[in-house]
Design brief:
The protein is α+β, with helices and mostly antiparallel strands. It folds into 2 domains: 78 residues, no CATH class; 41 residues, no CATH class. It contains 5 helices and 2 strands. It has a two-stranded antiparallel sheet with strand order 1-2. Strand 1 and strand 2 form a beta hairpin. It starts with a helix and ends with a helix.
Amino acid sequence: MMNREDLVEKALKDFKSGKCVLVYDWPNRENEIDTMWYAGFIDVEKIYTLRKEAGGLICYAVSEEIAKVLGLPFQVEMLKSYEHLKSIIKKPSYGEVSPFSIWINSIDVKTGISDEDRVKQ
């Protein structure tokens, strides 16, 4: 059996080579497995799989550094900036607010709904 560090190294290698990586979210949080692909390898078939087989929430993750360069704030920070929206911010039972930013679309999308549109970068 591989140790944790070796598993992480293998997952990173697979991820960077375009393979699907499954990441388990601990039992006290969501207790689920997230399906991930490196965005540079994404295609319509992978979007379809994410949408139909992996729960449908499709995220494009960037580092904190890139988010800062692009000026992408976390959603919770945006909500805090509006007094009348602060009350909808709730801390989940696992203790962390969601680290999501705002949504973005390619300027080439038609509706943003189709798998073809979702794969555009």
